[in-house]
Amino acid sequence: MSLFSLFCTGRAVLAQGVKVYDAACFGLKADSPKNASPLLQRLLDKVKKECREGDSIVIRFHEGTYNFYEKGSAEREYYISNHDQDNPKRVGFPLEGFRHLTLDGGGASFVFHGRMLPVSLLRSEGCTLKNFSIDFANPHIAQVEIVSSDPQQGTVFRPAPWVKWRISKDSVFEAYGAGWTVRHSWGIPFEKATRRIVHNAGDRGCNTQGASVIDAETVLAPNWKDEKLTPGTIFVMRGWGRPTPGIFLSHNIDTRLENLQVHYAEGMGLLAQLCENITLERFCVCLKGDDDPRYFTTQADATHFSGCKGRIVSRNGRYEGMMDDAINVHGTYLKVIARLDDRTLVARYMHNQSWGFEWGRAGDEVQFIRSRTMETVGAANVIDSIRPYDKPTVKGAREFAITFRRPLEADITPEGGFGIENLTWAPEVEFTGNLIRNNRARGALFSTPRPTLVEGNTFDHTSGTAILLCGDCNGWFETGACRNVVIRRNRFINALTSLYQFTKAVISIYPEIPELDKQQAYFHGGREGGILIEENEFDTFDVPILYAKSVDGLVFRNNTIRANTDYSPFHPNRNRFLLERVTNVSISE
């Protein structure tokens, strides 16, 4: 017990002008098996009632474990970008409408039970989250070890000791917990000794139909047959759902996340939408040390920023074992579905996991994209007014009626296939000093016209492309073109060990352009040296280093490429540098 907690009064303590609430004084004791959810809700209610505008607030926990259950937690209707839009959601820490709040975990481990959103921070300004970890007692991912795999007999596997599992009445292996059941249909194989994803494996099916119990520890799945699964392989079984991230940020200004560790979330580690200025310092989506028996962290991306502005900084983090990218920064194209008059369009969120939240505001600058060629049409315009079109409120809306300040080009119609990009909600990015390793899919994705610096990072066995500059108004509907990118002094170690979408090379500049042959302008770049790749080190077992499509202004210089024989080359792209419709380019190793 801390000396501070010996003097609990049930009220905040004023220390140097800051109101400090010690969680222990409100019944939230470290290492207690008691459900912390209702106690936390009472504490947050008290803070809200007592604090006034202009107050600086600290909520302080202590080192140790706190258990949060669905019962007694907050219930919220949240529409979260790039996640399943199912509601309501149970929330552990619903931090809403705060100014100058610091949540200081003091080294605490926050452990969640069931299906929950651990932390949300909404409509807040000048807030800090620091010094705690997030985990779940019973992850929805099921980790198993392969005992044997036979092309005739099928696969025998041993679930990890913490996995709650059973064979269903219709003979399917399933994991379960409080309020949830998952039948896993696919997953990722890891090398047991190195924790790396198995070379040239990618996503694998895991058909457990017809499964039976051999003994208390092992299961036979006769229909799961896979030559990649040698004895001792660790297989991480996944479902398709991604209901909530570990941390959800929305409509905040000047947010700082410091010394945080997300060990598991059923969605992304961090999802931020419609925020201005976010700093991540030593933010990690990571295992719990070298002896952690788990091989996985989050079900999806480690960090994801949708429709943010200002400056996004991610420094000195560690991202490992996640089932998707370390960072993805983008906006969202709305698809034009109706033209009401010469200044008014109806436009729609298209992806099934990205809708229901605000897209733009009066005064925002926008541009129009022809989706088949990814070219802008006409000059930029400004939103005069915007309102939900298919719902009475923005919450839950997919469609918006948008009136613009100036008349629209005549060919901007639903039949023409157009998207609208919000240029105001596009951030500057600094991604520096991070370690990305042993994860599925890709390393870092950027789709913003503002300056982007990627420097001093280590990309170690990212199974697909290490860095992707994208843009897609046809499938994912994630904006937009990159105009000013510096990729400098990074080290790339054996990327491209598997094939995933947009993974043509270690660095892929890969916008989705269905009719590239009809394109007249260029998508990325726009000036000499708009994309600069210099002073990096590439250690690679395969050939492709750089792929670029539809770029005006590309420089690759003073980089070191070292070949190794760690794995067998297999990538279908056999070109060191592969360029499609690229101009103003300079390549020198």
Write up this protein.
With 589 residues, this protein is mostly beta strands. The protein is globular. It has one helix and 50 strands. A hairpin with a 5-residue loop joins strand 12 and strand 13 (173-177). The chain has a 33-stranded mixed β-sheet that branches.
Task: Give a short summary of the structure.
The protein is mainly β and 589 residues long. It is 2% helix and 45% strand. It has a 33-stranded mixed β-sheet that branches. The chain has a seven-stranded antiparallel β-sheet with strand order 16-15-19-10-11-18-17, with no helix packed on it.
Task: Kindly estimate the percentage of residues that lie in beta strands according to DSSP.
Answer: 35-45%
Number of helices: 1
User: Portion of residues in helices?
Assistant: under 10%
Mean pLDDT: 96
Q: What is the straight-line distance between the termini?
A: 59 Å
The coarse overall form would be globular
The assigned structural class equals mainly beta
Task: Offer a few descriptive terms.
589 residues; mainly beta; seven-stranded antiparallel β-sheet; 1 helix; 2% helix; globular
Please render the helix and strand layout as text.
Blueprint: E1 13-15, E2 18-22, H1 37-50, E3 56-60, E4 64-68, E5 74-76, E6 89-96, E7 101-112, E8 117-122, E9 125-136, E10 142-150, E11 154-159, E12 165-167, E13 173-177, E14 180-182, E15 186-190, E16 204-205, E17 212-213, E18 219-221, E19 234-238, E20 247-250, E21 253-262, E22 270-273, E23 276-285, E24 303-306, E25 309-315, E26 318-320, E27 327-332, E28 334-341, E29 344-348, E30 365-370, E31 375-376, E32 381-388, E33 399-404, E34 418-422, E35 428-432, E36 435-439, E37 444-446, E38 452-455, E39 458-462, E40 467-469, E41 478-479, E42 485-488, E43 491-493, E44 507-509, E45 524-525, E46 531-534, E47 537-540, E48 546-557, E49 560-563, E50 577-588
Parallel strand pairs: 2-3, 3-7, 4-7, 6-8, 7-9, 8-20, 9-21, 20-22, 21-23, 22-24, 23-25, 23-26, 24-27, 25-35, 26-36, 27-37, 35-38, 36-39, 37-40, 38-42, 39-43, 40-44, 42-46, 43-47, 44-48, 45-48, 46-48, 47-49, 48-50
Antiparallel strand pairs: 1-2, 5-6, 10-11, 10-19, 11-18, 12-13, 13-14, 15-16, 15-19, 17-18, 27-41, 28-29, 28-34, 29-33, 30-31, 30-32, 30-34, 32-33
